[in-house]
Amino acid sequence: MAETARKILTLNAISARGLARLPQHYVVGGDVAEPDGILVRSANMHDMDIPASVRAIGRAGAGTNNIPVKKLSERGVPVFNAPGANANAVKELVIAGMLMGARNLVPALKFVEGLGGSDEEMHKATEAGKKAFAGIELPGRTLGVIGLGAIGSHIAEAAIRLGMQVVGYDPAITVDAAWRLPSQVKRAESVEDVLRMADFVTLHVPLLDATRNLINAQRIGLMRPGAVLLNFAREGVVDNAAVVEALDAGKLHAYICDFPANALKGHARVVALPHLGASTEEAEENCAVMVAGQLADYLEHGNILNS
Ligand code: MLT
Predict the structure, then answer these.
(1) Can you tell me which atom of ligand 1 is nearest the CA of 85?
(2) Tell me, what's the pLDDT at 2?
(3) Interface pTM, i.e. ipTM
């Protein structure tokens, strides 16, 4: 029987190992007309005129907020994503973020960059930096994890290995995920409980109506003085203006996030990264392999393994 040469439109660069999961006779590229499927990473598809020929979408990542999922599901078009495929990458960056906050790494680097004069003069000036940027250590401190999916639970496990106490909250945790959580993770009753108990708070929730501005002025008010807030989830889950106010008031020690924003720009206690959480060779490959496989399986056999 002749094989159908399905067409896949790629909206972002997709790792070669992922593309290799598509049958060889598929036509794949950034400009194919009348595609059967679309592979996308973070390109925004909300304003896109999605061709009527499209039967499935593969999102090489965990979040699907760049895709009009509801509109597509009304058309019977499934959206496959890759939950967990980039969890290790995000976990590593969150641990790095905690260390940045705990040891004041970014302001300390800026301080050294700003030093001038002879080597001797600079060495003398380091004394002031040593005092100003003295930090804290992680063992014994409490990490609050809001959202205990693949990423949140990975981070909880790593933090326990680092000697931290972990308190977590997720109203929608699955039975499987709950079983996988290390027994040392204390389960809180609410977001507020986590905020009251933690020295570091990390967010791992999708951006939904219910999570927009989840961390607002009122909730920041519940946090421990000098806490570090980490947001490697989505920008909209935190109210930037409230964070800046809390940083200026000395209520929060640092805000480490994965998104640039004018409201945060230039703030000495903010570290803002260009959405690097899942940007590793390994994560990009894992996500692409997972979704390309799902997309091909659906187009060839109608199997839905995740949507
Ligand atoms: C995700 O949702 O998995 C990340 O935002 C992935 C990405 O950087 O595209």
Answers:
(1) 3
(2) 65
(3) 0.90
